[in-house]
Amino acid sequence: MTRPRIFVPRDVGALALGADAVERAIVDAERRHSLDIEIVRTGSRGLFWLEPMIEVATPGGRIAYGPVKAGDVANLFDAGFLDGGPHPLRLGRPEDIPFLARQTRFTFARCGIIDRLSPADYRAHGGWRGLERALALGPDAIVEEVTKSGLRGRGGAGFPTGIKWRTTALAAAPQKYIVCNADEGDSGTFADRMILEGDPFVLVEGMVIAGIAAGASKGFVYIRSEYPHGIEIFGRALAIARAEGILGPRVLGSAYAFDIEIRVGAGAYVCGEETALLDSLEGKRGQVRAKPPLPAHHGAFGKPTVVNNVISLASVPAILADGADTYRDIGYGRSRGTMPIQLAGNVKYPGLFEAGFGLSLGEIIDDIGGGTKSGRPVRAVQVGGPLGAYFPRALFDTPFDYEAFAAKDGLIGHGGIVVFDDMVDMARQARFAMEFCSIESCGKCTPCRIGSTRGVEVIDRIVRGERRAENLVLLQELCETMRFGSLCALGGFVPFPVTSALTYFPEDFGGAPLTAAARAA
Amino acid sequence: MSLVNEIDYGTPESKAEKLVSLEIDGFKVTVPEGTSIMRAAMEIGIKVPKLCAYDMVDSFGSCRLCLVEIDGRNGTPASCTTPVAEGIKVTTQNQRLGRIRRNVMELYISDHPLDCLTCSANGNCELQDMAGAVGLREVRYGYDGENHLKSEKDASNPYFTFDPAKCIVCSRCVRACEEVQGTFALTIDGRGFASHVAAGMDEGFLASECVSCGACVQACPTATLMEKSVIEAGQPEHSVVTTCAYCGVGCSFKAEMKGDQVVRMVPWKDGKANHGHSCVKGRFAWGYTNHQDRILNPMVREKITDPWREVSWDEALGRVASEFKRLQSQHGVGAIGGITSSRCTNEEAYLVQKLVRAVFGNNNVDTCARVCHSPTGYGLSKTFGTSAGTQDFDSVEEADIIMVIGANPTDAHPVFGSRMKKRLRQGAKLIVIDPRRIDLVRSAHIEAQYHLPLLPGTNVAMLNALAHTVVTEGLVAEAYVRERCDTQAFADWAEFVSLPENSPEAVAAYAGVAAADIRAAARLFATGGNGAIYYGLGVTEHSQGTTAVMGMANLAMATGNIGRRGVGVNPMRGQNNVQGSCDMGSFPHELSGYRHLSDTATRTMFERDWGVPLDPEPGLRINNMLDAACDGSFRGIYIQGEDILQSDPDTHHVSAGLAAMECVVVQDLFLNETARYAHIFLPGSTFLEKDGTFINAERRFGMVRKVTAPKNGYADWEITVAIAKAMGMNWTYSHPSEVMDEIARLTPTFAGVSFKRLEEAGSLQWPINDKAPEGTPIMHVGSFVRGKGNFMITEYVPTDERTGPRFPLLLTTGRILSQYNVGAQTRRTANTVWHEEDRLEIHPHDAEQRGIRDCDWVRLASRSGETSLRARVTERVALGVVYTTFHHPTTQANVITTDYADWATSCPEYKVTAVQVSPSNGPSQWQETYEDLSRKTRRIAGAAPVVEAAE
User: Fold this and answer.
1) Could you tell me if A146 lies within 8 Å of chain B, comparing CB atoms?
2) What is the ipTM for the molecules in this complex?
3) Rounded to two decimals, what is the model's pTM?
């Protein structure tokens, strides 16, 4: 009989829900039952309402149980779960769980499945194939392939990744850099973290490919300090990758050199903005730089630099391995490929849902997310982090696509969605957007630095009913000033949540509610 | 007369050669590629509103007032950060831009005090101007929102205040501190609305690393950083452009005036030496010009123990003439002499040497360059053919390897130091050869590739070891040497430096530096691209000062580093006009332009012009005059603007010489140390009170302009003229320009100089003549002035000043940023907050051995004498080396120094003295006696007791 294998996630979400205690309980049970069990620590599959979701290997494939508490473990053993025995917590084959079954997993193909620090397991699940093909293709063809795939920046800006790489590749300099933005600060987002903790090698692989393509021999991963587990796991992954010859002077024995260093943030949201990130990475106060010059020409330490989000880079190995066409064939409009949608807030099924672009917002919230956790009607969803617009139900037919959201003064950002039920006070949410900005602004440009504080004050006055009409005009003008006057997207996008709240939920600001027709318009 | 306001183009000039044409508001403009849209607009007079842009620093893009629209492009890009592009059409004013700008201004003003009428920047405030320009009429946010109006003002710096309540957080100060000054003392602390300017770790300006250069104050668009003098006096109404009278950088300043009162000194952007930057001395430390210690009336006394008696100018001048004539008739023509001043103008130095040669009838004239850069003149003239540095300051912008030897630019030549630091931050490499770890070795964003902390006195050996490496490792620029230099001299020199005793390994044994470092530094210098040598008194003030200068010249020639931009041998001249005073013929053996007296043709030209015969024999140097005084043959001296008692070595010897004279005439602003031995005191005038010219370290003639009438009644040149007249000469000069015309007429190197020409050009670098009508920024281009570059054999001969059991440590001396030389000026300003006393730097190990702790009083003794001062225990000095400054007369550092001197030029060996250091209880008996005598010899009859030298 083969040694029983149990997969226990070590993703922070699972840990917070007691995954370590579950593992200890399994070890106790193992001793009690005099068994020899192999416990594999994985990332998360991204079904957070089922975490800790543990899986056992059976001849018929893996069988999931969840959410498992430590106290359930003895019971599970008694129920013969090592053989996939029946139990109230038994979920069956994980890939048959509708939330997973409906997904198209490219980037997260291995997350939650493999031993995240085993390069062999990584390879066994399709890892390194992208890099091997990249080495065979050479820089120009890699850039061509990535451009063809239609991959756009998953950090939020949606800039074509291939074009960014080409710009850096064409910049002549003795030293260039690949910088991975892992300063994932948007509300309701966790995709980057899941990669760092659950499939770090895919990011290593993506960065090495980027390095070869752009002519950079050094990469930095800028990870927010709030991700201590991600920092630890990714750090260990780097050491392993060096030992495996993936990183170092000769990548997989080729003539290319590449190595990666981790730089840890210091708690500023604005350092997720690429130029502030570069300042912070250089050891300076994180402050937004004016563009031009573009980081592609004048980035980290003044050298040509590709700055990409974790998901952009982690999507690259699959694109190279399976070909640009496979990736490009999925998607909607100009948004090609898949997007890891992250569902959070007041939602019944919170988690990570990777799928091709084009699902309607309504499908995502109601069908996939299952509506609110509270069971009350959904009143608003904020898509794209704290700078994203609040969409009412009336806009639920909007397809999940960069352009479609932009057309409705919204953004998909990094793919985070926060759901609110009908108890939400949208004036408070608008005020929060301004307040968030006043705290998190880098303090460089005037509209953001002073405007956000004034925004809070003006909204307070409106809510108090002080000279309401004048203050509403002032708030609109302030939003215009911030949108067109700010140096970066922080100040520039704060108007999205504010004006969307004002537009769709005027009653929360002391105005008359919109008619259904007006809402739909 | 009006206020000089330079145009602020918003962003720095682009040096690109490619031109780009675009259209701004319908007007076509063509500018170099890389120019910002804002600057391009300003070039054709279109002012785009702005607050954070300022052309001394790179564009920043924070204020968002300068937004524009570009046809075919999205959004509203900032014109300061957006470069021009071919064919674009830019709109700088329309309704939408106007509304955004007004609304941004509204935000600014919602967090700004409304005290414009009583604000010190009223009338000169960019925030005020912009509120007007954008048409701000109301602040709809009200004034009761969150704000910074209650922030506390920081008045800790003696010269300016920082009022955060008025700050608009534009970062101009922070960027000026970083980019212009290179100190990185300022930062923005906090995030979002809490963002604020912080000095150091928010500890206030005085306690921070701030060096008070004033760049931040100059950059501030509001009253946030404001000169205290402006707060007191109000805004100035007119300005006069003049040249700073502190160090040899020769910065151009605007003296900003109210009537005849200086309100502030602001560096002039068109100044070619400083390009709008300044240091704490030139910018702020001009208060001495109005100090109560200034003597404004002539005074005489019979004996130096008598109190001074104020007399009329006629009486004083008559006395000078009669005494000098009496001494000459009793003791011979050679019984008197004069000393020209490196602090005074060229015209004044010229007139003093003319007085000595044409009126006294001898050549007993010398100048303070004797004690600083005389070896430079001699050494460079022997090798290259000219007694001056080879480059302009701008040249450093193209240097790849900068070698600093025995100089401390960030303290002693701070404005040039900042430019050097800027170049180093751009990636040039640095080699520092200095016994002490000067700031350049490691400071913000700068680190020397090699610091060779040699023992004082081993410069020549070190230079030979560097040359040995270059020659024996085949790193000589052979084609250059073959084409440009005397090949026989080179061959002899190459053979000499290749000797084993000149190898790094041999030198390392006694210089205290690892041989491998010497070799590596030599390789870097020879192979790293443009190599530029900058040196100071740490090279010249040695018994082998001249040899070391020649050693550097040899090294530069051997590596092909003379005759183009980015290279050269550059003396960091100490005083504002030390180059000029030498150029004007202040040495006993030379006439203006370094022409020897023995040259009959030259002498005849002067004799004809001056109408008197000249003695062809060189006269006495300062030290010879003092020796002769002790012997009784030298009886009287006219000293203009130099304090030899404090500044010359071996104070006991100087005082003995002075005491032996019968008529010592001192012309100075203050009763300086030398004046204790004076019989006649002639009050001098400051640089603000006269017209004339200075020549800086890069051979640049800069205009000195009278901004106010001499408080003492006469400019210094007028006093010299009056002495000549009193002695029977018919000198008819009515203005210094006439003196300059005479200099130009008699000196081929300066043939093209006149005040008119300088007024037109702003400043010019000599040689200026028919061959080089626009002056000569870089010397020896194409060929050396002397023809072929001459290699000199530079055998290392250790100084006779040796350490031994009684005096085991080596003392070396230097300067500090806030004080200037003997401190006569800076001690009479608030600069004393940074340096109220001279301290003795001693290595922790040497201190420990002697039981000395930081701040303890110590006795510092040499074979010449002893003094006491307090210790600073620091690893900046190497083991076995101690260091002090000499800014305070009470320290009497020169009581310690010896009378050893350079073999060629008698430049004293200040930089090496064997000493012992031991704990003490306070000032020595000698110092106390000196203090007492000092008071007694400064008494003025009928006046309140003279206040002691301000501390």
Assistant:
1) no
2) 0.93
3) 0.94
